[in-house]
Amino acid sequence: MTKKLFIPLLACVALFGCNDDKNQEQALLNDVIKTHDKLMADDGAIMKSKMQLKMIATGNAAAKDSVAVYSKSLDDADGSMMNWMNKFSPDFTGKTHEQVMTYLNNQKAEIAKIDSQITVTLAKSNSYISKNKMK
Fold this sequence. Notes:
The chain is mainly alpha-helical. It has one domain (24-132). Helices cover 87% and strands 0% of the residues. The chain has 3 helices and no strands.
């Protein structure tokens, strides 16, 4: 009788344990994708800032060096995002739960650094733009 109860109980534990693992993986993947989506929206702000910087440089030869620095920072931040997107792979076929979680945690940390880089770069370039807008 004990064996008859043990096998179905073990099957239930295994089934629900796998579902919990998949839920954890999906939740972490959702966190990564949420940050990615925010940064994709920031891509438009990067392009806008680069255009404004070009306009400042066109009207002010003395500003060209500063504009070049801010434009390069924006390019670097955008490049970091593009590089991350090219390397990111949400295909976890054949991976254990631990491997998936390790990968996603690493990706979450990496995308968080990129988020910080983009946020800081945009803030600095936008501050420069607001101080140097052509009137």
